[in-house]
Amino acid sequence: MPHELPALPYPKEALEPHIDALTMEIHHGRHHKAYVDNLNKALAGNTALEAKALPALLADLASVPDAIRGPVRNNGGGHWNHSFFWKLMAPNAGGAPTGALAEAIQRTFGNLDDFKAKFEAAGMGRFGSGWAWLLVQGGKLEIASTANQDNPLMGKAVAGCEGRPILGVDVWEHAYYLKYQNKRADYLKAWWNVVNWTEVGNLYAAAVK
Ligand code: MN3
User: Fold this and answer.
1) I need a surface site. Which of 10, 34, 42, 128 has the fewest CB within 10 A?
2) Which fold has domain 99-207?
3) CATH 1.20.272.10 at 21-87, yes or no
4) CA 31–ligand 1 middle distance (angstroms)
5) Can you tell me the mean pLDDT for 102-116?
6) In angstroms, what is the span from residue 85 Cα to ligand 1's centroid?
7) What is the pTM of this model?
8) What are the residue ranges spanned by the domains of the chain?
């Protein structure tokens, strides 16, 4: 099987009380695992596509045969998005970005609080299921949101936005319902307490290099 479920980079209870252990266990062990399994199932027998790295596969969905394009988009997107998402969080994290990323946020959004408000609004504004993103496009920071498991790697024609994601939050109900029920706004506010700004800063540095 070409694609594998990555281990969580911390124990499932490590993000308590902001993200509860049962949510992490189900989100990683069942939802993310299902994306990986279904991606492998969709690609089975197509050795050229099986050998392709996931970002390259998502960046060129047009080259995927019609019969499996939908499953590859949904499950390949789901696999990439969640692998990315786990690394953006850490225990004892939160706080504020530093260095070049902090300066870019200030330059683009005025200050960190205004950035957070706009990012939360992108998450709140996504009807149904999807993601909110902070991405680098043409050297500049942008906030975007995508539906379902789409992401900016898929390009504007598919996902409605493009660029290199440096932060992303899952606003599917499965990401927060057990603890926050229908209160997506409360989840998004609490989520800042687990954001791994060191990782986000590294992704920013790589994206503007
Ligand atoms: Mn999810």
Assistant:
1) 128
2) minor pseudopilin epsh fold (3.55.40)
3) no
4) 7
5) 98
6) 9
7) 0.97
8) 21-87, 99-207
